[in-house]
Amino acid sequence: MFYIIEHVVITHQPGDGEDTMYIPEGTSLQLECRAFGLPPPRYVWFLGNEELREQTSNILLIKDFR
């Protein structure tokens, strides 16, 4: 498959419009990123410097946030 390469455009980043997010301990945290381009972008999430390898969707869900 061939693509005409387009630069990635991020249309929504986690926390857009929010300077600070306060998440009560023990609740769920959902972060969302939206982007488009060719080839389609991959989503990679990190916790500190550690890649969350199981998280490859544009939505990151952390249950029981601590």
Detailed description of the structure:
This protein is mainly beta and 66 residues long. It has a single domain (6-62), classed as Sandwich (Immunoglobulin-like), CATH 2.60.40. 0% of the residues lie in helices and 36% in strands. The chain is built from no helices and 6 strands. It has strands at residues 6-12, 29-32, 34-38, 46-47, 50-51, 59-62. The strands form 3 sheets. Strands 1-3 form a two-stranded antiparallel sheet. Strand 4 and strand 5 (50-51) form a beta hairpin. The termini are far apart.
Secondary-structure topology with pairs:
Blueprint lengths: L5 E7 L16 E4 L1 E5 L7 E2 L2 E2 L7 E4 L4
Antiparallel strand pairs: 1-3, 2-6, 4-5
Descriptive labels:
two-stranded antiparallel ribbon, 66 residues, Immunoglobulin-like, two-stranded antiparallel sheet, mainly beta, 36% strand
Beta-strand content bin: 35-45%
Tally of alpha and pi helices: 0
Identify the CATH class. Answer: Mainly Beta
Shape call: elongated
**Alpha-carbon distance between the two ends:** 43 Å
Q: Evaluate the radius of gyration.
A: 14 Å
CATH superfamily: Immunoglobulins
Q: What is the H/E order?
A: EEEEEE
The CATH topology corresponds to: Immunoglobulin-like
User: Helices and strands: which structural class?
Assistant: mainly beta
Strand order of the largest sheet: 1-3
- Corresponding CATH architecture: Sandwich
Short description:
This protein has strands spanning 6-12, 29-32, 34-38, 46-47, 50-51, 59-62.
